[in-house]
Amino acid sequence: MYIKKYDSSLINKYINEEKTPDYNIYDLQNDEAFMSEVIMTTHNKEYYRRCSDNLKKNQKFVLFVVETFIDDEKFVSYVVENYFNETTDEINRGEMQIKLAGLSDKYDYNYLKEYASSAKRFYLYEKSIADMMLDTIKNPNWKKELGTGFKLYMEFFKDSNLITFYMASNVLEELLPEETIENELHKKYDKQPNLNNMELYTYIISIVNKYDHFLADYLELNVHAMDFAVERLKKAVNEWDKYDAKKITKIIEEIYVYLNSQNKNIDKDKLLIYLVNNRGYNDKFLKNDKYVEILRNFYSYNPNIDYSNMELIPDELFLVNGMDEIIHKYLHIDNKKSNVTYVDFSKNK
């Protein structure tokens, strides 16, 4: 919102096309504050068209016009296109893309999503340049020192706090997806931790520091760049008890992808149930609804099979070994056969 700078009588004279002897009309149409007040007073798009070309390249003014007429996709597109057609400076263009992307979070209009995509493309383009530069580094110590390459973005965009902040958020988003944060949390703690707000932010920084100390240092001074990561960490803490079940779901999905890739006429459910029982994984798998449903369906179609003592042919055993490798990618399980827990689904029939 603009603070009124001009007397309303002058605004009205301009709107009514009366003479303004104390002001040059071209100066007024090049004045951000004046034209903003005119547009706020009239809510008329025509006054944007009367603005000077220079004012149409003013980021703050353009964003004001966009938000004022946010419900008019065609006009907003026209205003934005004018800006980018007249602006060649890469920093200014990048900043405007990021600011427009922010509107997609503020307003619920589908067309604004394209601006968010445009900002993401800006990030990916700059990332491709940074990645190429990292690839040219032969010294392993230097490459390790640069980590994700965030230091390069700090140099590229040292004149733009906004772009540097945006780059930091995007690098962090790629570095710490929800799954990684969950995994890191469960590696560090044996039981559900009770972390206060400062400890949540500090913990995120400690994880990042393992990959890129430049990014970690930046986040320490710009904590809001990791707000979304802290929310992911809070979720991981709150859903502590769901961790194993979610892991099992991913295991099952990957196992079925693996079995489908073998192009063999095999009973995937049978092999999965055999593996879980034979290796003693029941305690973990029976906590997962997806596996319980697979077990229930298998029993309903094969009521006479003693699935606790199934025998497999050599080809099937070979596949089971491959499935076991998938499980060990996700879970740390003692390979020794443990006491097996069986569920009699016939009681639920």
Helix content: 55-70%
Secondary-structure element string: HHHHHHHHHHHHHHHHHHHH
- Quickly count the helices: 20
Count of discrete domains: 3
Cα-based radius of gyration, to the nearest Å: 30 Å
Report the structural category. Answer: mainly alpha
Unreliable stretches: 333-349
Instruction: Label the overall shape.
Output: elongated
The pLDDT mean sits at: 88
Number of strands: 0
The biggest sheet, with number of strands, parallel, antiparallel or mixed sense and barrel status, is:
none
The N- to C-terminal Cα distance equals 67 Å
Beta-strand percentage? under 5%
Describe the structure.
This protein is mostly helical. It folds into three domains: 8-87; 140-238, no CATH class; 245-348, no CATH class. The protein contains 20 helices and no strands. The protein has helices at residues 8-15, 25-28, 32-42, 46-49, 59-68, 73-86, 90-106, 113-135, 140-146, 150-156, 161-175, 178-188, 197-209, 213-221, 227-238, 243-260, 268-279, 282-285, 289-301, 314-330. Helix 13 runs antiparallel to helix 14 (213-221). The model is unreliable at 333-349 (pLDDT under 50).
